[in-house]
Amino acid sequence: MTARVWLALSMALALGACVSGPGGALAPVGPVPDAAKVDLVAVTTRGPSPSPGDLFTGERADTVSAVRMVVSIPPDRARRIGEVQWPRRLPADPETDFAALSVQPLDPPAFKAWFATHPDSSGRVLIFVHGFNTDFDVAVFRLAQIAHDSCTTVAPVLFSWASRGSLFGYEYDKDSATLARDELERVIDQAAASPDVRDITILAHSMGAWLAMESLRQSAIRNGRVPEKLHNVILASADLDIDVFRNEFSALGPARPQVTLFVSRDDRALRLSRLISGDSARLGAVDPSVEPNRSKLEALGIAVYDLTALKAQYPLAHTKFASSP
């Protein structure tokens, strides 16, 4: 590992890592009749965990797994919008913590049927692709929080690639994201092929933005366009080289979905990524108010929301899109 990478990771450790709780947080606690619930499916390229409360590790698997989960959200009096309440001890207490109520493995036919049975979708699907340094349970609870706090009627799908959840795993994570491109494309195609789905939105965070754009690029090249039902792509805090993004965006062709960026110039995680990447500017930290950025983004029809002025809950300021009330 180069001195540049060691310096960047040392800075990250000083700032603090992603917030998470004790291992085993996904062990089902059983039904809670009055709790707010999020019914989601997680599709993952991770290997299975020997711990039933963790479900999956950060290691890569040769096959793809899918599980249906119901996650309970603690009452509004116990939390603020944008927060994930991690259990401080196990089993989780649904009165104060995010908790898994049920976990059910899914085969491909059951995954297809889930779109028809989801109670809140109205034909709309949200596919969330997490970023670097993210354990499986962190990704599950973050998607549940987003789905609940946004008050939208969607069927939430998590695409979880094999991140080791370690600040020292940047290169491993990037390679894992590369290996997951075909599988993410397949999940998007499966959703689009369902007659019960009419609208798909992809929300990709951090390194997941690179993975999402790569999958869409190869889908457009393979099929002549991305699936017609894919209407929106949201890239939040995108850990993505700006020039690479321009190439990927161009490859989507004229029948592309609406692309929206959430950016923040005080995103310390992207500053570290820029350092690791040889001072390559990151898309998620672009200043949309200055030229030539402003004109170029407008010409491409890209919507940009600048979150720089919002106060961050965590030192890295890398999850403002989800954690800011």
**Helix coverage percent:** 25-40%
Please state the average pLDDT score: 88
CA radius of gyration is 19 Å
Find the structural class using helix and strand composition. alpha/beta
Largest sheet: 9 strands, mixed
Please tally the β strands and state the result. Answer: 9
At the fourth CATH level, what is the homologous superfamily? Alpha/Beta hydrolase fold, catalytic domain
How many independent structural domains?
Answer: 1
Low-pLDDT stretches: 3-19
Strand arrangement in the largest pleated sheet: 3-2-1-5-4-6-7-8-9
Q: What is the CATH T-level topology?
A: Rossmann fold
**General form:** globular
Second-tier CATH architecture:
3-Layer(aba) Sandwich
What is the element string, with H for helices and E for strands? HEEEHEHEHHEHEHEHHEH
* Terminal CA distance: 38 Å
Strand % is: 15-25%
CATH class: Alpha Beta
Helix run count: 10
Structure description:
By secondary structure, the chain is of the alpha/beta class. It has one domain: Alpha/Beta hydrolase fold, catalytic domain (Rossmann fold, 3-Layer(aba) Sandwich), CATH 3.40.50.1820. Helices cover 33% and strands 23% of the residues. The chain has ten helices and nine strands. It has a nine-stranded mixed β-sheet with strand order 3-2-1-5-4-6-7-8-9. Helix 1 runs antiparallel to helix 8 and helix 5 (181-193) packs across helix 6 (207-223). The longest helix has 17 residues, at 207-223. The chain is globular, with a radius of gyration of 19 Å. The protein starts with a helix and ends with a helix. 44% of the residues are buried.
